[in-house]
């Protein structure tokens, strides 16, 4: 296969231990502890090119930030790659058999259940968002306008998205938030940290013996089971109704509730629980992270804040509508630039499920065909790719929303992944984020940064800020 396709070996990262790669793993773990794993990855690509291999514990990984290679893995040769058993084992204590760990027919079926939740008519309905933003603004006022916005965004997004997906809010923004909801929120954080550590350990994940991690996974599952009970009750109630009175059979079009559709699809409580945990995780982290990074930059860039607020106020109306938000052009640029610099999934991977050939990645210049053997892993970094100067200009490391006035990128810009596994909720996330930002910039006339330090990565299954968004907001007159 290598000879027939003219494949050349890729570059290799120099390793003191080329067989087991202990030095590389320790370097990765050390950088992560110092909040610098992504910078380490970027420096490796700066030194060794777009594509290079590493060997860790009898596993070959192809590391890349080449959009052509990534497009082939995620799209053109989609069926040659999957999540792979290593990813499933690392994430299974938390995510079980959910959409983020499964492949083939199981994944296709799960995605088909999720997709109707994000049809335009539901995504553009601001009624659910509005109530939770009202709570957020009131909470900021009660805290005398001095807050860590990231903590509040995570709570608010989980509240609004759980109501959207399951018909009931977790209730973290309430003054009377239940102890179980708060415990679940913190357990989900810790369980994610353990999951990414297990993934970094690879074939040595058996050495990860953290009781708190296991307890956190059990806490998350126990909280999700309340939604499982609701789903099973809905299923029983539907079964007792005559056919003509079941949802959708009486000529009406009920609102699509993901939890109800899950209940129609299966009565397996474990499968229901796994799907719910996967969706709760997706519902919280990526949107909350996007909002946090946006306000982290706004607090440090008074010029961007002023320009953005002027754009928001020019098109603002009461009640705020989807069409009005879509008119806020500079708001769109700010979100695109935030997603470029801080993509929600900063690194991702796929495992080859058979021997296959990629058209690029081989040879000293990375432009020759590359043989990928079965079970080899392709790890790709959107964080590194989004900061490549040949795509985004000599100031690619700077936050400059104006670049999006003329920028029309292709596969070099992947904030929501690409190919068949592209995020089905991307429009939902962008709409919710846009609405939230517009409401906050209408409610507050200024923002003061209270944190003199640079951003520190918190890299679990998604990218967030280790140092949060410490700021003081000024209420509008």
TrEMBL record:
Record carries keyword Metal-binding: yes
Metal-binding as UniProt keyword:
yes
- Keywords, A to Z? Heme, Iron, Metal-binding, Monooxygenase, Oxidoreductase
According to the lineage, what is the superkingdom? Eukaryota
Cofactor(s) in the UniProt record: heme
Give the matching CDD domains: CYP52
Q: Which InterPro entries match?
A: Cyt_P450, Cyt_P450_CS, Cyt_P450_E_CYP52_ascomycetes, Cyt_P450_E_CYP52_fungi, Cyt_P450_sf
Q: Which GO terms describe its molecular function?
A: heme binding; iron ion binding; oxidoreductase activity, acting on paired donors, with incorporation or reduction of molecular oxygen, reduced flavin or flavoprotein as one donor, and incorporation of one atom of oxygen
Q: Which family does it belong to?
A: Belongs to the cytochrome P450 family.
Q: Output this protein's name.
A: N-alkane-inducible cytochrome P450
